[in-house]
Design a protein that fits this description.
The protein has about 240 residues and is mainly α. About 15% of the residues are buried. The chain has seven helices and six strands.
């Protein structure tokens, strides 16, 4: 009985064929039976999403994806670490975070290795403005905003914290309070966006891929396509976990 492989090697070429194009029917059927026993539906790592592959081949596949990810990401991790040290050194020499403008020191002429193009144009000069905040959220949360009748700008209407005293911030509040509210909104939006992306994209693809792993021969072209698109996908689940 041939050993099961955790995941297709991306350095080797596979000739994909359907069952009707291949004379080795028995071998293909036998392999599928082995895979069905080997790839086991495990619990969802992010919680309340698709099952996660376990079993010997499933664990091997996930580990292979993790190893490939770490290898591919090593250069950017090194660059980020070095850039972060330089940014913190610059901030320290300037006396630390004295005021709001001090935050710009963390980004101006920084991150040259990891983000050579620098911050998006206008970001550092407009990051406190309501209009920039609104344009960032337009496609995701349009119900929170309105078109100002005087300026014609698309501006935030109100931000509710949904925690603690459950305060609601509006344009009538101070500039500092409004900035705090937008910072809290961005933090929550980032977290929600990551989980939403994980559950609505990676988890859905993962469910289809795991079903294919258990029912399709390794030479099947559909499995080849799914392997390609699922490359390192489950690393995202592990990182979220």
């Amino acid at each position: 009985m041939a050993p099961l492989v955790g995941s297709r090697s991306f350095s080797t070429k596979t000739e994909f064929t359907t069952l009707s194009e291949d004379d080795s029917h028995f071998e293909r059927i036998t392999e599928v039976e082995q895979k069905r026993q080997g790839y086991v539906y495990g619990p969802s790592l992010p919680g309340n999403t698709s099952y996660f592959p376990t079993g010997l081949p499933g664990d091997a596949m996930v580990q292979q994806h993790i190893d490939q990810w770490l290898n591919d990401a090593s250069w950017i991790n090194t660059a980020v670490g070095e850039d972060a040290n330089i940014a913190m050194f610059t901030l320290h020499n300037a006396g630390g975070l004295e005021n709001l403008d001090s935050y710009k020191l963390l980004y101006e002429n920084q991150w040259k290795q990891s983000v050579p193009s620098g911050p998006a144009e206008g970001m550092l000069s407009n990051f406190t403005k309501d209009r920039l905040f609104s344009m960032e959220k337009l496609s995701l949360n349009p119900a929170y905003f309105y078109i100002d009748c005087l300026s014609g700008s698309f501006l935030p209407l109100a931000i509710r914290t949904n925690s603690g005293l459950d305060l609601v911030y509006t344009p009538l509040d101070s500039e500092e309070d409004r900035l705090l509210a937008k910072a809290m909104f961005n933090t929550n939006d980032l977290s929600h966006g990551q989980i939403f992306h994980l559950a609505d994209f990676h988890a859905i693809n993962g469910a289809v891929h795991q079903a294919a792993l258990r029912t399709l021969n390794s030479k099947h072209p559909v499995l080849g396509i799914l392997d390609h698109y699922m490359y390192k996908s489950r690393v995202n689940h592990d990182n979220q976990d």
